[in-house]
Inverse folding.
């Protein structure tokens, strides 16, 4: 009887020990290097540098906050929240704003970031919402130039090695004011094609790789962890307004069967849209039509019309969409042919780099090299004006998908990401 | 054109014609031989093409069956594969084209044009072909245009879908035919592509009419195409329809370069030209030699005939052969001998006749004065005893002297005619001669005769003997005055004529009969009662010595006109005159 009781106690202890071990495995752990591969070739993380390559700009906006932080950040609802600034007040005339900065914020060289007087004064008589939104933008990130010329930030990671456009290593900032990140470091391999990334992921050379929207379904079925993050991509046609008459532009947009492309080529990933910014960000995208109307398209272009069509043939996600658009356009009597030199119309990706419409449009205008957004105007007005001036007709919003190995936890907040070394790769 | 030239031409033409005939015959037979060889080669090519097409069709059918039975095709049919999965299946099966379509032909997945999913396939084939087990030629739409392919269709997933796959009819198919040198195979495929072993044919429009013939008649057709301005680029084609189920699916064009044939024909022509030219040269030389031998006796005969015509009856022709020409020469010689004998006899007879006429005239002329002489002398004899003798004697002697004077005049005229000297030529103005003669003859008053002169102002200087010319003109003037005993008009005209001068003397007398005109220049013929008949004979003699010509025109009541044509210059007396055989 006693032996039996002992046996039961031992079994209970074993179960408890196993449960404890399992619980321990679920708790965040410090250490490890997260190996990431991306398609973009980022030239610099400097917040002031705006890449002309949409993919690189999107990636830069994704990785830059790990190194450089802003005074405020926007939450998931787009509301400004204190970050490096803990509070803000204005003078009696409401023409100057004073931002109280967080104490004990260490720069990456170990020195304390301490603006004079412990605050930052910004003379600006605009509404505080506009000011805060702008301060939350990547371009307003706090950057301190060291004596050796290096750019110092306050983010959870510091740049340990930077080989522009090729690879980089970000190391955990031990004195980060929000607490040391779990990861010791993040190694980033840049300029890797999606196929190479998938291959490296399969053989365990990478922990997080990008995946095309249309390919999201298959890994999910295999049980691979899939995650979507900002920035997301706008797939759009960009016309050379000077060379393509407005009726032809409209006819081409009306001839595109977005539903078929979304269902088959994109495997129902992303969203059909006639607006630049996604509906979850603005709430008005339904105001931009996205339905196919072949009859109207044929009426707009009664005679056959030919346009040169450009797109990135190396982009596995863009190429089939472009080919399908060419098939659709031919039904409306518009021949799209690949040509050399500047194309009449291009199929492009534009990144949605921020969770705020103004900030997102700001980057898009910079990429398209058109007039900047008007802070006083609504996002809708800004977006409509931008589409007309730039000759852009949005087609889809595509998520930027990631394939994660099973040991990557708490994606996508990198300061919270940790690696479960006990998990199966 | 001379007989010799004609013979030369005939012989040259005969040689050239013979060469041309031979060249043409050789060219035609060469062309026929080439055509026969071409026909055989083209038929062999057609057989080869059909065999190759059959072999490839079998291969396509096998590959499409493989694709239809694959797991990938099942997945596509079930909607469990990517939209472009057909590409994988096409690559596995080794097919250029692969569509997995729904029974209503809506594309589920397309290997060659992935973006066309959801569209209906518009292959240009009859609907019943979709369920046919045969391999057929179909037009496939691709992003780069339409191409023709050997195609087969097989059901997949129990007929839920169909797999249509094919292989492109590529230039490689034509290359594999292994055509003979100088030949090539082209393939026309609807709607208008023409491919060869090296790829699409440039300038296929040149084959359009030939292909149209085949499309219209659905039978083989032949034709030639000249690809460039150079004739050696010409190519002869045999166009053969490729049909399937009675429908034209394409046209096989078996082409043979004509460069070899044209080169050979050119060579034959060149040789013909060289031989022809040589033949003409040789023909000309031979003809010249031959005609020389043939025509030389003829020319001698002609020269002899000309000499005879010129009055040389002693002309003879050398007899060089015993043929027909030799006989002709002998006959000619005999003829001239006979003519000479006849002339001698005629001259002899003429001499006798002339002597007789002279004797008659002389007797007549002498008899007239002799009778008064006889009477006078008889009167003188009878009156010898009479008292009136002195008076009779004086009258008789006067009469005798007068009649003796007549006799002397008659004898003098005969003497003058006999003594006609050779002319002494010098340059004279015929107008001056006319004026001097008229002046002389009108010194005596002739109240009823009216002289009229119509003299040319220029071109009247000729070479002549002025004395003889004055004498001849004087005779004509005297004759004219004698012809107008009752008076009238004497018209003398001079005018340039040909290369000399024309002198005309007209009277307004009674005129002459035609017979008188014909006999007028005969010596001793006269129409006058007391004429000797020597005046006009002397005129004719003078004109003849001046190499001139005299003619007379007259009519009853119209007067008489004598016309003399004299040359401006006289031939060199030292120069040879006339031809001899």
């Amino acid at each position: 009887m006693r032996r039996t009781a002992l046996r039961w106690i031992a079994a209970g202890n074993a179960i408890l020990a196993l449960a404890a071990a399992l619980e321990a495995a679920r708790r965040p752990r410090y250490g490890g290097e997260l190996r990431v591969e991306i398609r973009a070739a980022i030239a610099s993380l400097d917040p002031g540098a705006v890449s002309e390559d949409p993919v690189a700009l999107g990636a830069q906006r994704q990785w830059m906050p790990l190194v450089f932080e802003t005074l405020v950040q926007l939450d998931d609802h787009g509301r400004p929240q204190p970050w490096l600034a803990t509070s803000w007040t204005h003078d009696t005339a409401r023409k100057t704003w004073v931002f109280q900065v967080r104490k004990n914020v260490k720069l990456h060289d170990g020195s304390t970031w301490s603006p004079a007087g412990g605050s930052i004064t910004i003379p600006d008589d605009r509404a505080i919402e506009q000011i805060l939104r702008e301060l939350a933008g990547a371009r307003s990130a706090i950057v301190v130039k060291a004596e050796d010329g290096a750019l110092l930030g306050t983010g959870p990671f510091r740049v340990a090695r930077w080989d522009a456009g090729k690879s980089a290593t970000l190391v955990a900032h031990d004195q980060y004011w929000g607490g040391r990140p779990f990861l010791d470091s993040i190694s980033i391999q840049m300029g890797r094609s999606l196929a190479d990334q998938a291959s490296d992921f399969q053989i365990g050379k990478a922990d997080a790789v990008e995946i095309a929207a249309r390919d999201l379904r298959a890994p999910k079925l295999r049980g691979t962890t899939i995650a979507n993050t900002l920035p997301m991509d706008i797939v759009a046609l960009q016309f050379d307004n000077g060379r393509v008459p407005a009726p032809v532009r409209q006819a081409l947009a009306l001839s595109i069967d977005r539903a078929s492309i979304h269902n088959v080529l994109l495997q129902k990933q992303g969203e059909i849209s006639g607006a630049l910014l996604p509906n979850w960000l603005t709430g008005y995208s339904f105001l931009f039509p996205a339905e196919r109307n072949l009859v109207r398209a044929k009426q707009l272009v009664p005679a056959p019309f030919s346009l040169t069509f450009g797109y990135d043939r190396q982009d596995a996600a863009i190429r089939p969409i472009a080919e399908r658009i060419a098939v659709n356009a031919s039904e409306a009597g518009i021949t799209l042919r690949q040509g050399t030199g500047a194309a009449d119309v291009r199929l492009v990706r534009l990144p949605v780099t921020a969770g705020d419409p103004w900030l997102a449009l700001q980057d898009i205008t910079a990429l398209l090299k058109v007039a900047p957004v008007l802070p006083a105007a609504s996002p809708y007005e800004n977006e409509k004006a931008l589409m007309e001036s730039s000759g852009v007709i949005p087609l889809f919003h595509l998520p930027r998908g990631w394939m994660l190995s099973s040991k990557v936890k708490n994606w996508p907040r990198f300061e919270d990401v940790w690696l479960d070394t006990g998990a199966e790769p | 054109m001379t007989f010799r030239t004609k013979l030369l031409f005939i012989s040259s033409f005969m040689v050239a014609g013979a060469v041309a005939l031979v060249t043409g015959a050789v060219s035609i037979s060469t062309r026929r031989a080439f055509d026969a060889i071409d026909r055989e080669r083209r038929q062999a090519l057609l057989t080869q093409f059909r065999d190759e097409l059959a072999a490839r069709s079998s291969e396509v059918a096998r590959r499409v069956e493989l694709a239809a039975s694959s797991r990938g095709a099942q997945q596509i049919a079930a909607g469990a594969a990517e939209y472009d999965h057909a590409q994988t299946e096409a690559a596995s099966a080794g097919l250029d084209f692969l569509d997995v379509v729904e029974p209503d032909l809506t594309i589920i997945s397309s290997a060659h044009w992935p973006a066309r999913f959801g569209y209906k396939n518009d292959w240009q084939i009859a609907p019943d072909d979709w369920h046919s087990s045969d391999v057929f030629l179909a037009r496939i739409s691709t992003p780069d245009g339409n191409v023709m392919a050997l195609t087969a269709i097989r059901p997949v997933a129990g007929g839920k879908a169909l797999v249509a796959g094919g292989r492109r009819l590529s230039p490689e198919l034509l290359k594999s035919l292994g055509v003979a040198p100088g030949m090539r195979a082209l393939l026309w495929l609807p709607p208008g592509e023409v491919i060869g072993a090296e790829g699409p044919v440039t300038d296929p429009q040149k084959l359009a009419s030939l292909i149209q013939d085949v499309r219209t008649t659905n039978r083989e057709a032949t034709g030639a195409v000249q690809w460039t301005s150079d004739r050696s680029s010409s190519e002869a084609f045999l166009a053969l329809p490729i049909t399937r189920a009675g429908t034209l699916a394409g046209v096989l064009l078996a082409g043979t370069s004509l460069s070899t044939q044209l080169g050979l024909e050119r060579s034959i022509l060149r040789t013909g030209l060289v031989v022809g030219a040589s033949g003409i040269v040789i023909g000309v030389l031979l003809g010249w030699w031959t005609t020389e031998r043939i025509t030389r006796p003829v020319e001698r005969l002609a020269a002899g005939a000309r000499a005879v015509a010129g009055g040389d009856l002693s002309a003879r022709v050398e007899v060089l052969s015993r043929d027909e020409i030799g006989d002709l020469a002998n006959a000619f010689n005999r003829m001239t001998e006979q003519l000479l004998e006849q002339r001698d006899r005629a001259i002899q007879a003429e001499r006798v006749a002339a002597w007789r006429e002279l004797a008659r005239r002389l007797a007549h002329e002498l008899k007239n004065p002799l009778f008064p002489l006889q009477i006078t002398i008889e009167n003188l004899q009878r009156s010898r005893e009479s008292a009136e003798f002195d008076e009779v004697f004086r009258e008789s002697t006067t009469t005798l002297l007068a009649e003796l004077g007549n006799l002397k005049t008659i004898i003098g005229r005969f003497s003058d005619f006999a003594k006609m000297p050779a002319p002494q030529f010098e340059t004279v103005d015929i107008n001056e001669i006319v004026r001097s003669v008229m002046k002389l003859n009108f010194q005596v008053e002739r109240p009823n005769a009216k002289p009229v002169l119509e003299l040319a102002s220029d071109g009247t200087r000729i070479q002549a003997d002025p004395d003889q010319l004055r004498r001849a003109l004087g005779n004509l003037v005297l004759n004219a005055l004698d012809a107008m005993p009752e008076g009238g008009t004497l018209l003398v005209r001079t005018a340039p004529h040909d290369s000399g001068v024309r002198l005309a003397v007209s009277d307004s007398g009674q005129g002459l009969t035609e017979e008188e005109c014909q006999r007028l220049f005969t010596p001793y013929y006269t129409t006058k009662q007391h004429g000797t008949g020597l005046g006009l004979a002397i005129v004719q003699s003078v004109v003849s010595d001046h190499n001139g010509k005299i003619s007379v025109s007259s009519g009853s009541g119209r007067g008489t006109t004598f016309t003399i044509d004299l040359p401006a210059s006289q031939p060199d007396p030292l120069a040879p005159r006339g031809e001899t055989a």
Remarks:
- Chain A touches chain B at residues 257, 260, 264-265, 320, 323-324, 326-327 (CB under 8 Å).
- The mean pLDDT of chain A is 88.
